[in-house]
């Protein structure tokens, strides 16, 4: 699964780094890891779902800084491979903590 997210804004931030992402909080993806592959391009390896360690957890993360005005590419996988498509619902994001926006698929 690959997600491309463009965060709106007219004042671009610095380049994203691994430290800008957190998988903690109320909608966390426990056990997730992230690696930088290129400029604003990352690989996320999901952990196991609660009570079902063989199922991958859903992707939920927060970008704490440097997201505004940048296109973000996330390549998402799980330790068990990509046998789960994660396509049963639309992907979305929010940047104000209130309003959800649907992912724009390319």
Descriptive overview:
Helix content is 0%, strand content 36%. It is mainly β and 106 residues long. It has one domain. A hairpin with a 2-residue loop joins strand 3 and strand 4 (41-45). It is globular, with a radius of gyration of 14 Å.
Which helices and strands occur, and which strands form pairs?
Blueprint: E1 2-6, E2 21-22, E3 33-38, E4 41-45, E5 48-49, E6 52-56, E7 62-63, E8 71-77, E9 92-93, E10 101-102
Parallel strand pairs: 4-8
Antiparallel strand pairs: 1-8, 2-7, 3-4, 5-6, 9-10
Q: Can you tell me the residue ranges where pLDDT is under 50 for at least 5 consecutive residues?
A: 4-11
Beta-strand content estimate? 35-45%
Spatial strand order of the main sheet: 1-8-4-3
Mean pLDDT: 76
Number of helices: 0
- Radius of gyration, CA atoms, in whole angstroms: 14 Å
Biggest beta-sheet profile: 4 strands, mixed
Whole-number total of structural domains: 1
Please estimate the helix content.
under 10%
Structural class: mainly beta
Oligomer: single chain
Shape: globular
- Topology, number of strands: 10
Overview features:
two-stranded antiparallel ribbon, 10 strands, globular, 106 residues, mainly beta, single chain
Question: TL;DR of this structure?
Answer:
This protein is mainly β and 106 residues long. The protein has no helices and 10 strands. It has one domain.
